[in-house]
Amino acid sequence: MTQSKIEMMQDNVFRINGTGKGSHSYIIRGSRANMLIDSGLDSNFTYLQDSMSSIGIKVRDIDIVVNTHEHFDHIGANRYFQESSIIAAHRFAANKMAFNDRFVTLYKSGDMNEPVLHVHLWLESRSRLDLGDFTLDIIHTPGHTSGSICIYEPDKKFMFTGDTLFAGGALSFIAESGSLGDYINSLKSLETRRIDTIYPGHGEISDNPGNDLRGAIVNAMNLLNKEEEVTVTFTDAPQ
Q: What pairing do the DSSP bridges indicate for beta strands 25-29 and 128-130?
């Protein structure tokens, strides 16, 4: 069965399913403002635009675009919004984007166009965005990258996790600006919040975030222990 381009997750929250290497994009239609979370690949912009049109939203109707982190598969289509929308990212991600750090944004691995990206709003952890009937808290969750964030709706108890947390507790890779230790710390900090549903940047949604967080922490700790074993073995090897 072919998956729909766009699906309603709950009232006025929609997911545009990623294609190819592209991330999912999410639209929150608020009573005061509309938000797009992650614009996806530049090369998927026509697909994104068509999906938005199917729910009656045009590019100019998006008031703010929030990027969960600085990788090209999440920020590539920003250019089509930056003249009419506020582009926002955590300051560690914004810095990489603003200075066109192709090594960290992974543009070295390819999207179709050279990035010419601007970030209007450099976010900090505990920033709050009020869309009217949705209030969204920014949580800095470094690990996958230094600028990774999760976006949490405390009243409705759902969270957009980008590449920080996936269904089933699967781990993302540790990217050039990331840290496995930071990753574990970020996951443990998320455990302190009540979360009913997670909407990740790739893959399926999770209705059991508690289990997925615990699984992700175990997986990350196992990976850290393996890295420590490799380091010790290398260090102790005869010269």
A: unpaired
Q: How far apart are CA 31 and CA 135, in angstroms?
A: 11
Its pTM stands at 0.91
Task: Break the chain into its structural domains and give their ranges.
Answer: 6-236
CATH classification number, 6-236, choose in 3.40.50.720, 3.60.15.10, 3.40.50.360, 1.20.1530.20: 3.60.15.10
Residue-level pLDDT, tens digit, the chain, 239 residues: 345 689 999 999 999 999 988 999 999 999 999 999 999 999 999 999 999 999 999 999 999 999 999 999 999 999 999 999 999 999 999 999 998 888 889 887 667 666 678 999 999 999 999 999 999 999 999 999 999 999 999 999 999 999 999 999 998 888 889 999 999 999 999 999 999 999 999 999 999 999 999 999 999 999 888 865 543 333 333 33
